[in-house]
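Entry, Tuesday afternoon. Goal for today is a structural model of the target with nicotinamide-adenine-dinucleotide bound, before we commit to ordering more compound. Inputs were pasted exactly as handed over by J.K., no edits. I checked the ligand SMILES twice against the vendor sheet because last time a stereocentre got dropped in transcription.
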Amino acid sequence: MNVQDQLVFVTGGGSGIGEALSRRFADEGAATIVVTDLDGDAAERVATDIGGTGLGLDVSDEEAVTSTIASIEKDHGPIGLLANNAGIATGGSVDVPTALWQKTWDVNVMAHVYAIRAALPGMLANGSGYILSTVSAAGLLTNIGAAPYAVTKHAALALAEWVSMTYGKQGIGVSALCPQFVDTPMLDLFGESASQEWVRSIAITTDDVANAVIEGLAAERFLILPHPEVETFFQNKANDYDRWLGGMRKLNEQLNNPQFD
Ligand SMILES: NC(=O)c1ccc[n+]([C@@H]2O[C@H](COP(=O)([O-])OP(=O)(O)OC[C@H]3O[C@@H](n4cnc5c(N)ncnc54)[C@H](O)[C@@H]3O)[C@@H](O)[C@H]2O)c1
């Protein structure tokens, strides 16, 4: 998948990884980039910089997602690259209130369902299309201190796998972007917690992520891992699940009450 001359639709494009991807897609010669975000002003700011279209869009609002994609397709034709990137990092345990679990589910999982449901028919009719799901290493490995985040990211990864295995033979490509920590405003949620220093020490830049995405899309690789060590961690987990869980328990202890504030 080469983004040159493609119609690209990005969610959560007003900040962090989504912003960097939107800018990089423009550099790579995408024909039209639709930058969407819950924060419409942020989306417009990025879109203005790159000559794209900026729109306010709450990805957890199915009707809004469906009508926005329909209106873009009416003006420009089928989407070439759908980047389902918006997400929220909900930390905490099973005791996180049910309403917040549900919100995390809606933004991190159902939003991908809504956008894929809306864009897929046009892609299939066109015989080609690509879906980039911003998941997280937490979707492969389960992160410490954030049960709603880990659970919903696993579900987003399963959805990406399912779409790939179901529609791959009909011209639909899928990649799942699974970074560990990336230096974006999302990291602010760690506040002044004990985990902060460790998190910052391994965080990469959004440009690093954009480079990995362009390379991963070109190779049409399902897993895009901007932190290459994640592949080894994932292999270790598969090779000996109990040993991997033991190591994670130890890390949990070391990080000393790591639940995000
Ligand atoms: N930063 C990291 O360490 C990291 C690591 C792995 C995965 N991710 C994932 O990357 C994606 C982007 O996160 P980021 O780090 O760039 O964070 P960010 O906070 O900088 O950007 C997230 C963007 O999503 C938007 N957003 C939130 N809820 C939305 C909604 N309901 N509808 C539309 N837009 C909404 C926000 O307004 C924001 O602009 C997320 O899916 C996140 O889970 C981040």
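The first strand starts at residue 7 and ends at 10.
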